[in-house]
Amino acid sequence: MSNRPSSPSSRGPRPAPAGKQRRALSMPRAPGRIDADGDRRVAEGLVTALRAAALDDVVADSLTHPVHSYPARMHPATVRVLVEIVADAMPRDSVLVDPFCGSGTTLVEARAAGLRTMGIDLNPLAVLLARAKTWIVPSKSRARLRLAGRSIGGEALMAGKEARRSGGAATTKRAPAGFDPNARDRRIGKWFAPHVRRELEDLAMRIDEVRQKDPELADVLMVPLSSILYKVSSRTSDTNPEWVARNIGRGQCARLFSERVEMLSAGLDDLYKAFGRATVRGAGGPPDVHLADARRLTEFIPAGRTGGIVTSPPYAGTYDYAEHQRLRFDFLGLRHREFDDGEIGSRRSFATGTTGERKWRTALAETLDSFALALAPGARAAIVIGDSFAGGRATYALDDVRGALSDAFYIEAWASQERPMLGAGERKAFGERPKAEHAIVLRRRDTAVTTGANPTTGPTGPTPPPRREPAPPRRHEASDAPTTPRARPAGPRRRS
Ligand SMILES: C[S@@+](CC[C@H](N)C(=O)[O-])C[C@H]1O[C@@H](n2cnc3c(N)ncnc32)[C@H](O)[C@@H]1O
Known about the structure:
Layout: H1 8-11, E1 34-38, H2 40-55, H3 76-87, E2 95-98, H4 105-112, E3 116-121, H5 124-133, H6 139-165, H7 181-189, H8 194-213, H9 215-229, H10 252-278, E4 289-291, E5 306-311, H11 321-324, H12 326-332, H13 337-342, H14 355-374, E6 375-386, E7 388-390, E8 393-395, H15 397-404, E9 409-418, H16 424-430, E10 436-444, E11 450-451, E12 462-463, E13 494-495
Parallel strand pairs: 2-3, 2-5, 3-4, 5-6
Antiparallel strand pairs: 1-9, 1-13, 6-10, 7-8, 9-10, 11-12
Helix pairs in contact: 2-3, 3-4, 5-9, 6-8, 6-10, 8-9, 8-10, 9-10, 14-15
The protein binds S-adenosylmethionine.
């Protein structure tokens, strides 16, 4: 248990970063009834993890967590508890992995607990965010970030004033490599007022200048820029593409950018300190985050060597990450073709007939197989996943996970918290059976991994043990309450 981090209470609340604070978490703070089952200690831990989201006033604003919004971001206080549960069963000096790392919440918490981490996401924006938010580097490098951010913000502000005095100079537009400048211009144009676009392009070009000497620092500086993009655009939000009129003052982009650089810098200082306090042997090194499909996990870590997983896969048919981030991809110049094709569980994939649902089940099974291959015997995977209204029907995520498990795993414990229904269609689809969000701990059995053909690792790669039963298409049936995990004798059901 050498990898076990100190408890959240013993670590105490970490100081909140400087600058304007903001809370944009997708997990609701409203409490809902919680059911739990399985190993008593782990189930109680999961209840604590789910409750933490509603009780927290500190963790979400600490470290680098508040730097950038992200749809369906896990609540950092929930993650902190899950990391503890998983780290408890991690072999010494092994790596904790988040294969759907998104904006990096798990990686930040695990790094703060002194653990070695690896993140994977197919979304290029997620990779940019997760790397920047876990940028544990010496103070000299962090000072360079502050300095560069201040000078870029200050110079962009001056340039904006100059343009105003001279009657509004034309915008110099960036031409990111691999993007047709005219097509990019058409896609971006309508979302920004001319003076806003001028300021944003100016900030981005100054970051490009930094890139020529220090690409790593430039990538970190892109994150504060990305974090303000939708705020100053006419896009309503990440998840709502409707056009909305916004009155953005001159100079506001440069000022917001500078504030965000300060916020990120302060968060990184805190993370560095927390990491230093908690570090266990072998836990150092730069952020290890890969742009890849979660189903190809063992291409990045040898089979059987992952110490634990804490993750939140997409919720079936709920988000379209590729669409939500498109304006950011275009503005920042992030390539996204692989993500457009490989995003799993997207809302758009559920739009046509039943293929979306079939593909979702296959993708979930492949994902869990790749987790099983990657994990060390006896290691844990903690998964947060929610029920959803997908393609006009209710989808029960705990059932889906059960149906997708191979013999390599058993469910050690789960906890499910009721979530509010959104709209009449959803209420009708769910009927009597509540909609819930689930925290599930899977435990890797000691089963030997055989070799053979496997779609995720190629023809000679290892193959996970067979599934016990095909994934059953369990759908809304009135008042079908969550059932007891079948793979292990269950403890008493707890309710909170
Ligand atoms: C629920 S979000 C994770 C949010 C993350 N836990 C956080 O706190 O920011 C699910 C993530 O899955 C990613 N994703 C979707 N399909 C993927 C795939 N095939 N491989 C890897 N990541 C994928 C999305 O880009 C998104 O970041």
